[in-house]
């Protein structure tokens, strides 16, 4: 065997090993997501899917359920003001006791656009999962209010994602009220 064909085989082996590694990560992501549900919930979902695929009645049931879910989503969007347009998740590190994932969320709260990027460290200790947000980065459309810029900066430093969502919801709602009020006087 000449050296060039040997190198081609080694390259192919490395490519296959990389593909196996990626598929293993995807499998672990899917498996981890499924562990958030109990065995009872999974069996119940499987049985409902099996029952729904048996006939024409199940199609109308699926349509009704989809319409119900769409109404619920519409209600939550109207109630909270949040409309998420995209979400991506990438696993950075995985072991038996810890997982690090990078998340990116984009959306609007009322009329304010935002993008949030963060790392989520999940640790398993004695059958309990704890999660810590780090590397929080918040990008918002240009807002002239310096207090909002200060708030975003301090929230990023503290990594307080929940505080951001709670506060931006209130701020965006009142921002809308202020805009309408100033338009009324113009």
UniProtKB/TrEMBL annotation:
<dbReference type="InterPro" id="IPR027801">
    <property type="entry name" value="CENP-P"/>
</dbReference>
<dbReference type="GO" id="GO:0005634">
    <property type="term" value="C:nucleus"/>
</dbReference>
<feature type="coiled-coil region">
    <location>
        <begin position="6"/>
        <end position="79"/>
    </location>
</feature>
<dbReference type="GO" id="GO:0034080">
    <property type="term" value="P:CENP-A containing chromatin assembly"/>
</dbReference>
<protein>
    <submittedName>
        <fullName>CENPP protein</fullName>
    </submittedName>
</protein>
<dbReference type="GO" id="GO:0000775">
    <property type="term" value="C:chromosome, centromeric region"/>
</dbReference>
<keyword id="KW-0175">Coiled coil</keyword>
<dbReference type="Pfam" id="PF13096">
    <property type="entry name" value="CENP-P"/>
</dbReference>
